[in-house]
Amino acid sequence: MAEYETILVETRGRVGWITLNRPEALNALNTQVMREIVAAASAFDADTAIGAIVVTGSERAFAAGADIKEMESQTGLDMVMGDHFGGWADFAAVRTPVIAAVSGYALGGGCELAMMCDIILAADSAKFGQPEINLGVIPGMGGSQRLIRAVGYYKAAELILTGRMMDAAEAERAGLVSRVVPAAELLDEAGTVADTIASKSLPSLYAAKAALDAAMETPLAEGLRFERHVFASLFDTADQKEGMAAFREKRSPDFQNR
Ligand code: CAA
Fold first, then answer.
1. Ligand 1 centroid distance, CA of 151 (Å)
2. From the CA of 190, how far away is ligand 1's center (Å)?
3. How confident is the model at residue 176 (pLDDT cuts 50, 70, 90)?
4. What is the ipTM of this complex?
5. Distance between CA atoms of 33 and 42, rounded to whole angstroms?
6. Cβ-count burial of 232 within 10 angstroms (0-12 exposed, 13-18 middle, 19+ buried)?
7. Which CDD domains is this protein grouped with (predicted)?
8. DSSP 8-class letter at 129
9. Which residues line ligand 1 (CB under 6 A)?
10. Enzyme catalytic residues
11. Closest approach atom of ligand 1 to CA 143
12. Percent of the chain predicted with pLDDT > 90
């Protein structure tokens, strides 16, 4: 496995774990962190022995945002020519389901990283926000687009325009968070959810994620057409035959990921 300096990477069963590890900067997302997360997630994605990925941080911070100290002296031209944040698109494009296990601060780029994942499990200590307005800028890793889709215009606008944080309970009510769990149980719960997902057939997981993505990106009629095609294509997999035979025979399916 590749050597990483800003993240910890391990495999538990069929689940790949990525733990942000810059405690001195509350896991602020600098360019190196972005490259390492993308590399680790892409490697897991290319490995059919992996059926789910968990991204987590520390108890105190999932990630407190993009690295302000790295960005401070940049010009607009530097940002454009360096395609600052552009690499995150490769993380969002990972086909394997990704769970964000969020404890503590998920601010700015941290909240945006969580929103690039498919499921957000939050510790009751979690705090979410897009505080970029306090720095004289705006969200730059998808916050102005994904937050609206998650919580609706008015909640997103209030958060982005005031920069205030919301706690885990409010984030769950708003629909940003899949589920809130006691902080001490966060990683176990993330592991349980990830194991559950990883036990399914990979082709159907890829298809489900592609259909969910389509719902975010396309008009309804186009999304429905896409869903029907993808649904039909799964009937050419051995796992569809196995899944339906197992139901009829009242046993657990034995998926082969093909
Ligand atoms: N970038 C760089 N360093 C950061 C950081 C960030 N986003 N967030 C925290 N740190 C550093 C602090 O500078 C501090 O380092 P030093 O000890 O060397 O000074 C260390 O992490 C600990 O932070 P604090 O002492 O500030 O801890 P705290 O408990 O007092 O406060 C906090 C915690 C409220 C999260 C506060 O650190 C904070 O407000 N951080 C910045 C949050 C923010 O503005 N995020 C948005 C960044 S811009 C962005 O993300 C753009 C985008 O859309 C992609």
1. 24
2. 25
3. very high
4. 0.98
5. 14
6. exposed
7. crotonase-like
8. E
9. 25-26, 28, 64-69, 85, 105, 107-109, 112, 131-132, 135, 139-141, 143
10. 66, 109, 112, 132
11. 53
12. 99
